[in-house]
Design goal:
359 residues; globular; 7-stranded mixed beta sheet; binds glycine; Dehydroquinate synthase-like, alpha domain; two-stranded antiparallel sheet; Rossmann fold; single chain
Length: 359
């Protein structure tokens, strides 16, 4: 098992990564169990296969456990849904000692984390991510949030979990596109912080995507978690270094918005965004042509879908409206080399347009 620590003083917490960890959870969670009510928040399609099994295992080990489900997809992040979760918790006589287990992908983590941050002014929660994207990204770092009709994640809190339990065996039931989407974020970690990891991933992408090597998969996930943990430990509230996690995200988010959220998976959009960011890095002289080609060829190890035709001007308009444009300044993440990201405020609209043309 790999154990990584997010270092945040008295709010520090471990990330455990181990294939088959789900079966060990009663044992691992025993240190947090003091007779309180535990509530597993999950989604219907996960409740049957995993949620009920986890609840039974915990009950057999003297945990008091209940299971709540939220709908699949972004609709679960409506405030009205969150309100009904608070009501469920009250009906179950939950109090400040209650601990939430967030069993699912990014939506479950965001909602369960937000409920934990706000119910009774904050109760403990533990992330049990079931998608690759959640394992390496959204379960770590404490950003929680829900949506308003005006936009996604407009209401939220930074509220850290007590632990993150990653079982890569969940990935066996994940569709290939979701896996590819997750590996785009894994490649991102290599690109921004760890050159050797990036090359290793490129070399082994086929076997990683086939889930054919448990140890290699565990190590790739753990290495990604370690990079995210180190960045969050250094900059919890995105005052500086945490910005490099947005590599590929400025253009990626704009592509998600302009193509309509269900055309591209998040990681696929980020992969296209990283391609553009790499291209801009070369055009501005941050990296040479060889480095750019190495970067591009490795990203294309991912079986990405065909990008629907986009109008670069419309994408650009979306970027300028994006929340990363702070006080009129675009903070754009570029590569100084593979494995080293920098934040630049010098990327112009023309640079962005030229990059969008390559897609
Ligand atoms: N929960 C995701 C993050 O804080 O980055």
């Amino acid at each position: 098992m790999n154990t990584i620590q997010v270092e945040l003083g008295n709010r520090s917490y471990p990330i455990w990564v181990k294939p088959g960890l789900l079966s060990d959870l009663p044992d691992k969670l025993q240190i947090f169990n003091h007779g309180q009510q535990w509530v597993i928040i999950t989604q219907p399609f996960l409740a049957g296969e995993y949620g009920s099994r986890l609840a039974e295992q915990l009950k057999a080990n003297d945990f008091r456990v209940a299971l709540l489900t939220i709908p699949k997809g972004e609709q679960a992040k409506a405030l009205s849904r969150v309100e009904s979760l608070y009501e469920d918790l009250l009906r179950m006589k939950c109090d400040r000692s209650t601990t939430i287990l967030a069993l699912g992908g990014g939506v479950v983590g965001d909602v369960a984390g937000f409920v934990a941050a706000t119910f009774m002014r904050g109760i403990d929660y533990i992330q049990v991510p079931t998608t690759l994207l959640a394992m390496v990204d959204s379960s770590i770092g404490g950003k929680t949030g829900v949506n308003l009709p005006q936009g996604k994640n407009l209401v939220g809190a930074i509220y850290q979990p007590k632990a993150v339990a990653v079982d890569p065996h969940f990935l066996r039931s994940l569709p290939l596109r979701e896996l590819v989407s997750g590996f785009a974020e894994v490649l991102k970690y290599g690109a921004i912080r760890d050159r050797e990891f990036f090359h290793l991933l490129g070399k082994n992408m086929e076997i990683l995507l086939s889930l054919g090597d448990d140890q290699m998969l565990e190590d790739a996930i753990a290495r990604s978690c370690a990079i995210k943990a180190a960045i969050v430990s250094a900059d919890e509230r995105e005052g500086g270094m945490r910005r490099i996690l947005n590599f590929g995200h400025t253009i990626g988010h704009a592509l998600e918005t302009t193509t309509g959220y269900n055309v591209l998976r998040h990681g696929e959009a980020i992969a296209f965004g990283m391609l553009c960011a790499g291209f801009i890095s070369r055009n501005l002289g941050f990296i040479g042509s060889d480095e750019w080609e190495r970067f591009r060829d490795t990203l294309y190890q991912l079986p990405l879908p065909e990008l629907p035709s986009i109008d670069p001007e419309v994408v650009l308009e979306t970027i300028t409206l994006d929340k990363k444009v702070q006080a009129g300044t675009l903070h754009f993440v570029l590569l100084e080399e593979i494995g080293k990201a920098v934040v630049s405020t010098d990327v112009t609209e023309d640079d962005l347009l030229e990059a969008l043309e390559i897609l």
